[in-house]
Structures
1.
Amino acid sequence: MTELALAPYADGRFEVIVDGKKIYSKLETGEFPDEDEIVKQISSMV
């Protein structure tokens, strides 16, 4: 089963977590991720 969950945070965080593994954090980089790069990372995990 594939699932996507969005959880709002007031601190400006934007994180992508797949199977409990954080693959991107805006808090760590200061920038929003490149959408294509995130899709590639997720695709390589499945």
2.
Amino acid sequence: MSLNPFKKSTYVGVDIGHKYIKLVQLERNGGIWKVTKTVKVPTPSDTMKDGVVTDIDVMGIAIRSALREHKITATSAVVGVSGASVIVRTLTVNKMTPVMLRKSIKYEAGRYVPSSIDDSYIEFEILGDVGEDQMEVLIVAAPREVVESKVKAVEKADLDVDIVDVEAFAMYRSLIESDESSILHQMTVALVDIGATATTVSVVSEGAFVMTRTIVLAGQVLTDALKTYFQLSDEQAETGKSQLDFTPLVTESVIENQPLRVIQPHVDDLSREIRRSLGYFAQQTDTTKNNPVTHVVLTGGGAKLKGLGTYLSNKLGVEVITSGVFENPRFLNSSDEELGAGMEWSVAAGLAMRAFAKAA
């Protein structure tokens, strides 16, 4: 807590990943979001495992150093959580008051949470009625260890943590929700965030989250495949991967590019897992609603591979849109960094946006 109750809080979005820590500060000018500060530093080795910060002191020092080096003077932070243990589900339950639902939420969530309910944070939002006797509820559950380890690490960096958000929510906020002109508001879309160690697939139907699933297959698997096959260093493999173009895989039957041939099986594995996620959604959906996934929005550092969206579109049979925050007309890059489309910054920017909702 700030010692001065009259001091205005300033916020930074903190996206703690297994490979990088990303920080974003925003200014809001009417309906325009100006990105004023961006910081990306390597996550210290052996400080993260399965979404949990395993060395809070070292992580805190890394975040504090990044803040000071880049002259970010925020007092508070919005932190994101993600991973296979973070559950996001829309459920249909018997109609009841919020007070009654609060009392029964552990039972409702218990069918979906793999870890102990007592060791999890659980929140819910009532989405609306379904017929006369039932209602739809969005449930979010996250292990205390995941939430508290990130909060403690950020607090070690001398920041107050006012808000903990789900990374998928932050991503949707920055890419789609804030762009009122986007046609995706009224559609059922799958957000696919390809990170370093995991890919998150979230299905959002007309603005409401239906499900989120984590796939333990992402950019690092592709890097490791190149590294092993060609006997490269991490840096050489990363550089080589960034120069690949997947477009020929769509049209050519024989591919002479050996690096492409090395990583294609892993991309195909990822495609199959994304398809499984969409299939699970279809099985769980009330068929009378007729709301199949029509678009996949591809983002994250792994989405920067040239032609990957086209290749996945061909594999999945749906339109794939590769998107970053700066392809949203509501965002402007006012920082000193060249950030391209901003595909790596969708989560951190969405977390920073969340602070403005709190202030309102």
3.
Amino acid sequence: MSDVGRIVDDVRERGDDALREWAERLDGAAPARARPAGHPPADALLQLANRVRAWHALQRPPDARLETAPGVHLERRWVPLASVGIYVPRGLVSTLVMCAVPAQVAGVERIAVATPPAGAPLIAAAAKLLGIDEVWAIGGPQAIAALAYGTQTIPRVDKVVGPGNAYVNEAKLLVARDVAIDLPAGPSEVVVVVGRGADPAIVDLELAAQGEHGPDAVCRVVDVDGDLERALREIEALAPEHVVLLGDAVALAEEIRNAGAVFVGADSPVAAGDYATGGNHVLPTGGWARAVGGIGLETFLKPVTVQRLTRDGLERLRPVVEALAAAEGMPAHAAAVQR
């Protein structure tokens, strides 16, 4: 078992005692509610929040209703999760907005935030601006385990969301056996696709910005070299978190399937998406963009299916149920429609 696995299992089994021991060992501080302090850039933060709110409000899926046969009524309605836990890496107030505001738009009742102690006061101050007061000064795998399983002090949540380092993401994948998670959103990735007419200075700016995320950030350049189809195949194989299209590579914008977010043209820097456009910057990494997208409103919703049958509707379906139940050897299913 990995060190992360031991931490997760220990917190799951021993609750607060294990959480305190691991937090003191790894964070250098006992777990505690974070008190707001510092001065987050309120105007910029609220501008970002407003754009995130507007963009995610448009994403609400419609409820669906259909009478599949006379007297047989189906409904699929979207409801908010009751609680979510948000992991915010140290000091990243923009990530707090990206996770918390869509949860608020969805109607989530309880939003619990966990963040490493070193930056917790600033995150708590930013959360206060958003109307959120449950912020825990806890980082790393121990924070993920506490949110997922609950302790004597911290109630468990229904879903854990938010990005983190490799250890946090390993913890999220481990707890996914017992609680829902959003997606693996780990060390940042960018692929800059350089087509004809691309400005080399823009390439350098994008790579440098992504490199600020740390030594484990993945920064790649794909040189189109006149072959857009080859470049597209390379992008799709990498399935990166961010793709930047420069020069004539902008022609690929509508064809890319495997990417968390695509930034089109020299005037569309990834940093604008990180901080200001309103698009979500919590995106899949590690090749997960082949199958999942970034955080959206649906991250904080779930569908519930409601089925209503009249007596005539049931009579109409009985032969179908009986035939299929007989084929599958399920006599109690056939008997269940005898009313």
